[in-house]
TrEMBL record:
It comes from the Bacteria. GO terms for molecular function: hydrolase activity, acting on carbon-nitrogen (but not peptide) bonds, in linear amides. One of its GO terms (biological process) is glycoside metabolic process. Pfam families: PIG-L. This is PIG-L domain-containing protein. The lineage of its organism: Bacteria, Bacillati, Actinomycetota, Actinomycetes, Micrococcales. Keywords: Zinc. Coiled coil: none annotated. InterPro entries: GlcNAc_PI_deacetylase-related, LmbE-like_dom_sf.
Length: 253
């Protein structure tokens, strides 16, 4: 188990958090993000698809995308995030292509975060809804971007020559929505749980039964806290923490 409290400090300069769809981050990591921003950490979001295939009302996909952009911007503000990037990929069709990976590399080199967050690239058989194909593609694209492309100046060399975006070594990758056997970090979000819920409620097109959603999320967070060995009545979010460039990392290994 990795002690996550060491990261909830202003020494974590920046965090760049990726999601496949608007609302994914709010389910998986918004409490942790609220804790980070409260500690003075800059957090930026990147939503990879427009969410145009989501929702329960009949409406034009372009209108759905417009509403979901708005919802995510409002939700982000609830947890202290003011910068939201939208990659504009089509909902349901996200793949870890080199075009997508290049976009991810470009953004990571621009932001140069201490922590990159993304959805887990492995399928979760305990709850297959966590493993929407777009979720898996988000995790795979970000993971492939982080190693080796972001830190390799010969990968997408035009990013260096045309935009001055030099190679950068990402210290940490935090994956949410992981299979339980992969989870090795739990963040106590008890003080920030209401902010997380406010962020989730902002996605009004996605929740036909808000009360059921709230009960489900609270139950998941209580279960996470129990598995993480946190005090009774605590609420937590869970992650698979990967040290990409640790103190003992050498070139290529």
């Amino acid at each position: 188990m990795i002690d996550t409290t060491q990261f909830i400090t202003a020494q974590t300069e920046r965090v760049l958090a990726f999601a496949a769809h608007p609302d994914d981050l709010d389910f998986g990591a918004a409490g942790t993000i609220a804790a980070l921003t409260a500690a003075g950490v800059e957090v930026q979001y990147c939503i990879m698809t427009d969410g145009d295939a989501g929702g329960f009302d009949e409406r034009d996909p372009q209108e759905t995308a417009r509403l979901r952009h708005l919802e995510q911007t409002v939700a982000a503000s609830k947890v202290g995030v003011s910068t939201v990037h939208f990659l504009g990929e089509r909902d349901g069709f996200l793949e870890p292509t080199h075009e997508v990976i290049r976009k991810v590399v470009r953004l990571i080199r621009q932001v140069r975060p201490t922590i990159v967050m993304a959805m887990h690239p492995e399928r979760n058989w305990d709850r297959i809804q966590r493993s929407h194909p777009d979720h898996l593609a988000c995790g795979e694209a970000v993971t492939q971007a982080i190693y080796p492309a972001v830190e390799n100046p010969f990968a997408y060399p035009e990013l260096v020559s045309d935009e001055g975006l030099n190679a950068y070594k990402v210290p940490w990758l935090w994956l949410y929505g992981a299979p339980r056997e992969r989870e090795n970090g739990f963040v106590d979000i008890t003080k920030f749980f209401e902010q997380k819920m406010d962020a989730l409620r902002a996605h009004f097109t996605q929740h036909p039964d808000v009360a059921s959603m709230e009960r489900f999320v609270e139950h998941q967070c209580r279960t996470n806290a129990e598995r993480g060995g946190l005090p009774a009545e605590a609420l937590a979010e869970s992650f698979h923490l990967v040290a990409v460039n640790a103190d003992d990392t050498i070139s290529g290994f």
